[in-house]
Write a structure and sequence with these properties.
The protein has 3 helices and 3 strands, in the order βαβαβα. It is of the alpha+beta class. Strands 2-1-3 form a 3-stranded antiparallel sheet.
């Protein structure tokens, strides 16, 4: 599924691009992800964490993230968050993905749903090495 290219506000481009230079695809709508909670790993000036890497959650990564102070697996119903489980796709902060890579805990990524902004923090070679969508 492709992201709707109508791009409204927030300084977001009208057609967000992925790390392959193509139109950004949806990462996940169940659970709903993205800085803008629109299913895409799109970004804008207000996204200081750069939530641009579409990652496929693993138990090891969820535990790693929790150990770093970002518990993504515990449900928080008051925020409409059911908690992530292995296999879920989620827009991760690019610096956190890079940190996990350096610790040997990086989850696989969906390149077609990973925003080109991730390249400011991660190398394309590393992302490709852990891609689930390269034929």
């Amino acid at each position: 599924m492709l992201r709707d290219g109508n791009g409204s506000g927030g300084g977001r481009p009208s057609t967000p691009r992925n790390v392959l230079g193509e139109r950004l695809e949806v990462c996940s709508i169940s659970p709903m992800t993205g800085f803008f909670r629109d299913g895409c790993c799109d970004t804008g000036r207000e996204d200081i964490g750069s939530h641009t890497v579409c990652a496929v959650m693993t138990a090891a990564f969820l535990e790693f993230s929790k150990s770093r102070g970002n518990d993504l697996s515990t449900p928080m119903p008051e925020f409409g968050f059911r908690g992530l489980k292995p296999g879920d796709r989620w827009c991760l902060c690019a610096p956190r993905w890079q940190e996990a890579l350096e610790a040997g805990q990086a989850p696989r990524v969906v390149l077609r749903a990973t925003h080109e902004g991730a390249l400011g923090h991660c190398s394309l070679a590393d992302l490709k090495r852990l891609a689930v969508d390269l034929a």
